[in-house]
Amino acid sequence: MSNTAATFSGNTDYNLSEISKVDIPTVPKDAILIKSVAFAANPTDWKHLVYGMGPKGSRLGSDVSGIVEEVGSEVKGFAKGDFVSNFMRGNFNSINGAFQEYVIINPVTTIKYDKSAIKTEALPVGTSPIGKIDTFEGAASVTLGLTTVSLSFAHHLKPSFDKADNADKYILIWGGATATGFLAIQVAKLVYGLKVIATASKKHHETLKSIGADYLVDYNDKDAVEQIKSIGGAEIKYALDTVSSTETFQSLYDATSESKDVRLDNLLFLTEKDINADPNRSVYIGDTLAYVVVGVDVNFAGRMVYSTPELVKDYTHFWYEVLPSYIPQLVHSNLKVLAPGFESVNEALSLLRENKVSGEKIVFRRV
After folding, report:
1. Distance set, CA 225 to CA 98, 263, 278, 279 (Å)
2. Predicted confidence band at 25 (pLDDT cuts at 50, 70, 90)?
3. Of 123, 133, 261, 317, which is the most buried if we count CB atoms within 10 A?
4. Span 225-281, pLDDT tens digits
């Protein structure tokens, strides 16, 4: 049985990927082997390569969906023939990578779907609208985002699961139209019953309202922070920055200044040292990195990010005990469907690198 993968060409211009014949590893006892069907591309896929985190020959890709071929002896809850999607840290070595024909995956970042709910037909090339997760392309598009959101809510933001207790509490999601923000809005509303304030450009407002955002603010407005404060004030108890620049995190911090017990989170290890913070204000600030949910510390761009037993416990409880019942209610964002085949990897990474997609997730099939 042969295996084909997209691997790093060693070229950091725009031909990052090349198609290679690679070995199929023996399935570890705590892992799963799948035959891939569809993939989703993420900014991290090109950033690892351009910023020197992956050597030539690294296997590419972070998001994949497919069909289970073999299950490790210690893995429970999965069987040959299951339809699944998985997120992994690819793009950094010659073993891990989602853009392969046969992929070894970790059950801790894997979603199993009701087979009767997933259509096996390929989506046509072009734009596919928001919809239920009922295709392999849609399944591939959500797993990194849901891993990130699960860790953020379960371990860093920690809202109560009591929807009655949350009825008058707000969460601010900066970057509601990002892939992570799109899913965070839904989780905040469906799982926790929070009131959701989201920032996005005006063209995305109606879409985000349709998936649960209660209030939308255009981040381009000069008074965006004041608008947010006038909506939620001291009742903004949680805030997640899915864009995570120093500018957006400063705005998030400022917009929650009236709350005495707010919990903030971001995706780029930003702290009060990175912004103009009030020395008299005590705020919890999280630093979500999805790679650590598998229980392994990660050296990410020269910074050690640690996986603690508490983090793994919080995440796995949410992932296994809470999230599955909500999967049928979630919708994926607009999909930009590329032509099938690993030849589309360079196109996908170039579109992301040049910031040519907005409010869409890039997906493509293996064949």
Report:
1. 39, 17, 16, 20
2. confident
3. 133
4. 999 999 999 999 999 999 999 999 999 999 999 999 999 999 999 999 999 999 999
* 189 strand-pairing partners: none
- 3-state DSSP: the chain helix, strand, coil percent, rounded to 5? 35, 25, 40
Three-state SS for 360?
strand
Question: pLDDT tens across 164-190, in order?
Answer: 999 999 999 999 999 999 999 999 999
**Partners of residue 38 on adjacent β-strands:** 65, 365
Residue 35 class from Cβ within 10 Å (0-12 exposed, 13-18 middle, 19+ buried)?
A: middle
Contact of 40 with 81, CB cutoff 8 Å: no
Q: Which helix (H) or strand (E) holds 287?
A: strand 284-287
Coil, strand, or helix at residue 160?
coil
Q: Which two tokens stand for residue 150?
A: 């699960």
CA-angle at 319, arms to 169 and 149, nearest 5°: 50
321 pLDDT more than 90? yes
Residue 191, phi then psi, degrees to nearest 5: -80, -40
Q: Which two tokens stand for residue 53?
A: 């985190």
Helix then strand count (H, E) for the chain reads: 10, 20
